[in-house]
Amino acid sequence: MAVSDLKFHSYLSLHTTADSTASAAQYNIFDEDNYSSYGSTSVSSPDITYSSSDGKVHFGASGIYLAVVDTPVTVNGICGVSLKLKLNGETVFASENLFAIHDADPFTYSFQTLLDVSKGDYLEVTIVTSNTKTAVVENGTSLVLLKSNGDYGNLQYTADANAAGSGPAEFTLFDSDNGGTVQSTLNNVSFAAATGLLTPTNTRTFLMLSSLMAEVGTNGDVTHKLYANGSSIDDLPGRITSYDPLELTYGFLKSLTGGQTASARTIGAGTITAQKGTSFTLFDISDDGTDPLAFISFTCDADS
């Protein structure tokens, strides 16, 4: 693809408008060959192209890209569902097998990470079940890609952490005390493994985005929290039972002053085990320090 870096936030937004064909084998969720009647809608900058004939997204500019995938899935039994992102055929992101059961589906799963992309690379998004049960990716499945023109920090568990917290004990994800294998992708953001904290160098407006994939030791409510400079700024309640692992994802825009810390934390009725694919991202929405002319982000601080 003869397109150079156009020096802006390269982007792609893609979503399907049809359900895939049921399959137990790993398959590309944006490849029309995996549908009896495929439909999709996409918008993108001219340096990113998507081909439905093979489900591949091709990049015309090198850089770090935020990748976010949301997919509602139905299955024909009880199984785990895992998603993988592949660059040039090589897996660069893999989630834990998340719980699915036909009696209660569809389950909607969200995944996010930062990708280090070179010009000419191609991306595939695949899904697979943990056994012989089949999975159907339903309409509304989406992929969003946004190229960074500023600062960023991403932490990701590539191997499960240990069980942590109990009862009222809140703990910080990616803290080395909790074990697991943590992969970091950083630019003008530092990571302190001993505390699990990210610290931006510069004052920026960041998208704070956190995905928790977890097992629990005790059935009950789990609260997923985002912190800035040691104070909770918002939380997302959910419920995780022994039918796990399950996933909770949320985020919003937050202005952080250089030197302030940021973290993702969680608390449940008992112990929680953060699992492979759990990810926390700070993504600077500016163009090298200059914010967009218009943007909005808000969260509700009370129940409806």
Note the main attributes of this structure:
304 residues, mainly beta, six-stranded antiparallel beta sheet, globular, seven-stranded antiparallel beta sheet
Summarize the structure.
With 304 residues, the chain is mainly β. It has strands spanning 11-16, 27-28, 40-44, 48-51, 56-59, 63-75, 78-87, 90-94, 98-101, 107-117, 122-129, 135-137, 142-147, 152-159, 171-172, 181-187, 189-192, 197-200, 204-216, 220-228, 231-240, 246-256, 262-268, 272-274, 279-284.
How would you describe this protein?
The protein is an all-beta fold. 0% of the residues lie in helices and 54% in strands. It has no helices and 25 strands. The chain has strands at 11-16, 27-28, 40-44, 48-51, 56-59, 63-75, 78-87, 90-94, 98-101, 107-117, 122-129, 135-137, 142-147, 152-159, 171-172, 181-187, 189-192, 197-200, 204-216, 220-228, 231-240, 246-256, 262-268, 272-274, 279-284. The strands form five sheets. Strands 2, 4, 5, 7, 8, 9 and 11 form a seven-stranded antiparallel β-sheet that branches. Strand 17 and strand 18 (197-200) form a beta hairpin. It is globular. The mean pLDDT is 93.
Share of helix, binned: under 10%
Mean pLDDT: 93
- In whole angstroms, the N-to-C terminal distance is 49 Å
The best one-word shape is globular
**Unreliable parts:** none
Going by helix content, strand content and strand pairing, the class is: mainly beta
Number of helices: 0
Count of DSSP strands: 25
Beta-strand content estimate: over 45%
